[in-house]
Amino acid sequence: MLELAGVFKTFRRGGRSVTALAGVDLRVERGEFVCLLGPSGCGKSTALNLAAGILDADGGTVSVEGRPVVGPSPERAMLFQSPLLFPWLTIRQNVLFGPRAQRRGGTKAEHAAEADAILATVGLSGFEEAYPQELSGGMRHRAAFARVMINRPAVVLMDEPFGALDSLTRSKMHAFLLELRDAHQMTIVFVTHDIEEAVLLGDRVCIFGGSPSRIVHEYVVPLERPRHALDVETEQFLAAKRSVRALLALDEQERAAAW
User: Is the per-residue pLDDT at 82 higher than 90?
Assistant: First the structure.
């Protein structure tokens, strides 16, 4: 579904060059949930922005279903830490913005019915005429998810979308995302620096490290689906967390030895 092959990215500022990514290889299958894990500044978001078409690679290839990525596209939905909603539009109008901007075929009534059905899917029935500022943080994230779902993206790219939420709301959003992923078999690439979040959500965890950064370890999460937020208390889950933490520690040791 999504592939980064031998991808390099260098940023140049004031006559100085910094290589952010060096030879990143990542293949995401249809319906797979892949978490990109690592400390801040290790290139996770850069890789995600390359997949979204927000940035261009300096080397290597980025493709979706075998087609080169050239700029942003509705087939690659992007969700950020802060939900990007237009404050002057109602929730229904926010969801309808994509189809209308794309001039998708169909009547206004058909589009509105589709929007309402998706809002029901994300638990926002009854809030169609509300404005973003009238919703809680978790509800705004759900509305942002509805806005990308109506575009029927091939891949959903998420850049630490729950990082600014309190722990209770974050746990609720984890439960929501797990249910949504299972119901729709969505292909998701999710950036995080939280080990527990990566293990709970992902089918596979790709650990970024090295200098310059690349994917240094991959871990297949040995937990069956469907999963639930309370799974974090099980011994199997805790063992998986320990395994991922050990891989992160191994990367730190390798970098220290290289210096």
Answer: no
